[in-house]
């Protein structure tokens, strides 16, 4: 079989008189073979010198073709081992991940627009009265010192409160291992910059959060996607790929994964940590939205089972608190603490002292528990209503993952419907939703949407689904 494939590769015809460069011609031939399935995932490509000799071209031409294939996600290079076929990009997007993912997230909407793309909290569900009380208490107690931070790790009182809060979720840590950050995105970026060298292999769920992929790629990581099905992470695929590629880092969202909303079982979490020990890699656990759960979910974080100190736990507080106030924290494994702290200092020195003290007050005065309880009750009711609407109106048009929590529905369109066309037609009707293609590691299927109920009232949500139904009817 392998001999047949190599024979087909060496039969590639390149035209030296064409205006198209030879490396581009070679790139296109190999790309076509990958897309047609002739070169399967993890197939080891022939060595550069062998390929150059057989095709009677300069080795540099093969190098350039391989580099272009790698850059566009068709190949993965492993130092000292060669180049391997990556997951096949089924569609090539004309837009970058960032453009596609966040194209409709602007707040400058026309009057009457309904935003069901943003995961920022509905401002009307936040108690300004409680927040004002917290600000006044902090300023009365600390005066001008409320704006200062004496420690690069963050305010000690907040780190102490966070360590206590974490113990309730079975994560045992000390304030010395807590680094306050300006949101989860900064935490992911810090980890990438501290740990990744160009060419390092990183695993990520596929689909996943585009911002994480952006940070990892910016550090030179070669990202391998681990597929997710209706049961969550495909552990069999994860283990199979570990045997071929040895990642330095794995990025996961074990509870309420973005965009699918699925959560891992305790068995899966323990399996991943066992593999981390055996294959010697670290895990970034992005705890994106574990404060809003709709099911009897196994809600202990992956970090709660970490006896090997291999999990870097990142929690965004702004996602559940006030989106405009960028605040979060990460739990640092002892061996990585110095490098993570160093990158944080280079990034922005410290996060706002006032914001830290306000949140510390929320934790110590029980305002945080009250806030979470109200949010849970509010979104629980809205989630149930959205499930009824989806079941009644859209069974013929799409399937969806039933999320274990959070604010989003991950939808797969049926009957050949194009996600791009649904997004465009919905916008014409004043509804903003997210195209799902941006959440994939490399492939860009045109059949997924992410719909969020975070920033809309129940009344607006119902109207939004009406507009979506009209948009689908128009293009069906």
Number of helices: 16
CATH superfamily of the largest domain: Type I PLP-dependent aspartate aminotransferase-like (Major domain)
As a percent range, the share of helical residues equals 40-55%
**What about the largest sheet?**
8 strands, mixed
Instruction: Please write the CATH class name of the largest domain.
Output: Alpha Beta
Distance between the termini: 43 Å
Categorize the overall geometry.
globular
Structural class: alpha/beta
> What is the total number of structural domains?
3
Strand order of the largest sheet: 4-11-10-9-8-5-6-7
**Computed CA radius of gyration, to the nearest angstrom:** 24 Å
Which CATH architecture of the largest domain would you pick? 3-Layer(aba) Sandwich
Tell me the strand percentage band.
5-15%
Q: Which ranges are low-confidence, i.e. pLDDT below 50, for 5 or more consecutive residues?
A: 89-109
Task: State the CATH topology of the largest domain.
Answer: Aspartate Aminotransferase, domain 2
Q: How many strands in all?
A: 16
Overall pLDDT score = 86
GO molecular function, one term: DNA binding
Family: In the C-terminal section; belongs to the class-I pyridoxal-phosphate-dependent aminotransferase family.
InterPro entries: Aminotransferase_I/II_large, HTH_trans_reg/aminotransferase, PyrdxlP-dep_Trfase, PyrdxlP-dep_Trfase_major, PyrdxlP-dep_Trfase_small, Tscrpt_reg_HTH_GntR, WH-like_DNA-bd_sf, WH_DNA-bd_sf
Protein name: Transcriptional regulator, GntR family with aminotransferase domain
């Amino acid at each position: 079989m392998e001999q047949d494939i190599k024979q087909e590769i060496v039969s590639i015809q390149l035209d030296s008189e064409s205006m198209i460069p030879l490396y581009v011609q070679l790139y296109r031939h190999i790309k076509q073979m990958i897309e047609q399935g002739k070169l399967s995932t993890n197939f080891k490509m022939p060595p550069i010198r062998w390929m150059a000799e057989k095709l009677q071209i300069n080795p540099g031409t093969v190098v350039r073709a391989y580099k272009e294939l790698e850059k566009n996600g068709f190949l993965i290079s492993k130092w000292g081992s060669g180049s391997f076929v990556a997951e096949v990009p089924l569609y090539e997007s004309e837009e970058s991940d960032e453009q596609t993912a966040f194209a409709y997230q602007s707040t400058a909407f026309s009057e009457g627009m309904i935003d069901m793309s943003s995961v920022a909290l509905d401002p009307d569900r936040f108690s300004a009265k409680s927040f004002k009380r917290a600000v006044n208490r902090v300023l009365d107690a600390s005066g001008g010192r409320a704006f200062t931070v004496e420690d690069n790790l963050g305010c000690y009182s907040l780190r102490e409160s966070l360590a206590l809060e974490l113990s309730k979720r079975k994560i045992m840590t000390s304030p010395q291992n807590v680094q306050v950050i300006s949101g989860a995105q900064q935490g992911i970026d810090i980890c990438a910059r501290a740990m990744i060298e160009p060419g390092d292999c990183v695993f990520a769920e596929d689909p996943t959060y585009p911002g994480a992929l952006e940070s990892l790629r910016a550090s030179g990581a070669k990202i391998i996607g681990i597929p997710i099905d209706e049961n969550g992470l495909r552990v069999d695929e994860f283990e199979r790929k570990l045997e071929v590629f040895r990642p330095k880092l794995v990025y996961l969202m074990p509870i309420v994964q973005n965009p699918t909303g699925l959560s891992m079982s305790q068995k899966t979490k323990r399996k991943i940590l066992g593999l981390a020990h055996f294959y010697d890699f670290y895990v970034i656990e992005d705890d994106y939205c574990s404060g809003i759960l709709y099911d009897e979910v196994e809600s202990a974080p992956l970090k709660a089972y970490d006896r090997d100190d291999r999990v870097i736990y990142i929690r965004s507080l702004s996602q559940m608190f006030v989106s405009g106030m960028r605040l979060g924290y990460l739990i640092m494994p002892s061996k990585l603490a110095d490098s993570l702290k160093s990158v944080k200092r280079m990034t922005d020195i410290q996060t706002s002292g006032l914001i830290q003290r306000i949140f510390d007050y929320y934790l110590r005065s029980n305002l945080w528990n009250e806030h979470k309880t109200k949010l849970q009750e509010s979104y629980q009711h809205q989630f149930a209503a959205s499930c009824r609407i989806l079941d009644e109106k859209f069974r013929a048009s799409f399937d969806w993952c039933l999320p274990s929590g959070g604010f989003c529905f991950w939808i797969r369109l049926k009957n050949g419907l194009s996600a791009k066309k649904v997004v465009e037609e919905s916008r014409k009707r004043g509804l903003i939703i997210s195209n799902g293609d941006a959440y994939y590691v490399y492939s860009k299927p045109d059949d997924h949407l992410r719909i969020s109920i975070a920033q809309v009232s129940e009344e607006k949500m119902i109207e939004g689904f009406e507009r979506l139904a009209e948009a689908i009817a128009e293009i069906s």
